[in-house]
Amino acid sequence: MAFLLLLHEKMRLRRQVNKLTLKQLRYGNRLDRMTKNIERVQKMYSSRQSQLQKMAQMMQSQATVFFQNAMGLGMQNQAFNPWNMNGGGMTSFVLNQMGAMLASGKIPSGKDTTYAAIDSARYQEMLQDYYLGGLGQMKDEDGNPVAGKFGTKGQFSEDEVKAFKMAMQAANNNQNQARTMCQNMTQNYQNNISIWLEAAQAQLEAEQDAALAPLEMEQTDMELEKDSVETQLAYAKERLKNIEQACSEETQNAAPKFGLG
Question: pLDDT (tens digit, 9 = 90+) per residue, 58-109?
């Protein structure tokens, strides 16, 4: 009778071990899938974080170009050529401002001085002469300055040259002021972009936490259930081992001794 009970318990424990082993495998597979899902979500948000940073950097770079072009200091329609040491000595900003001042005859210099207007064609002639010889005073064959004549051929008056150089100085001063303003605008925009990026990253992190929370909670529940199954399985295996040993002993005890005992 005892042997039958042991045998029954042995079969029951084997079925339990098989069921628990199957559960263990299923939980292991589900945990693997859950881990992959969590990694996929993390990679997606990591990619979005990288895209945010690249977007912020791109906007900062574009803003610098935008402000420079808007102030006439950028590469857009830029006359200055760093490779041309002779004719590329002025930027578009200075050239345009000089042209406007000379055309109006009014050059800001701290004094109420008005000069005769110099049209665009005359201005271009003066520019060419300035690049070639600096609009210096003409000299005669003996090297003596010729009164009232300026330029390589003496084709410009003293007032024209004075107006030209005063306009150049005023335009350069305006350019320095514009550069400072452009730098301030660029710095202010970059600061605002940094604030925007921090806020966008914080929002994205909050979205990531909200997306991961249920997955991580489910993962934790699975791990707890898997641990419980493994504990039950270890206990069932130990019980089965003991029952199998008891069955073996009962079998040996029930075997006929044929007078050997």
Answer: 998 888 888 888 888 877 667 666 555 555 578 888 989 999 999 988 887 6
**Helix intervals (H) in the chain:** 2-70, 92-104, 120-133, 158-254
3-state secondary structure of 150: strand
Whether the model pTM is above 0.70: no
Q: Give ∠ CA 142-147-153 in degrees, rounded to 5.
A: 70
CB 193 within 8 A of CB 49: no
Q: CB-based contacts of 155: which residues, under 8 Å, 6+ apart?
A: 125, 129, 149
Closest-CA residue to 176 (of 60, 72, 65): 72
| Helix ranges, 71-157 (H) | 92-104, 120-133
Q: What backbone phi and psi angles, to 5 degrees, belong to 73? A: -110, -5
Phi, psi of 42 (to 5 degrees): -65, -40
**Closest to 189 measured CA to CA, from 70, 46, 47, 77:** 70
Q: Using CA atoms, how far apart are residues 182 and 180, in angstroms rounded to an integer?
A: 5
Which of 120, 139, 113, 105 is closest to 148 using CA atoms?
139
Residues 6+ apart with CB under 8 A from 245: none
Burial class of residue 97 (count of CB atoms within 10 Å of its CB; 0-12, 13-18, 19+): buried
Contact assessment for residue 146 and residue 137, using Cβ atoms and an 8 Å cutoff = yes
Note the Cα 145 to chain centre separation in Å.
62
- C-beta atoms surrounding 239 within 10 Å: 16
Name the 3-class secondary structure at 149: strand
The string of pLDDT tens digits covering residues 187-223 is: 999 999 999 999 999 999 999 999 999 988 988 888 8
User: Can you tell me the distance from the alpha carbon of 157 to that of 138, in angstroms, rounded to the nearest whole number?
Assistant: 10
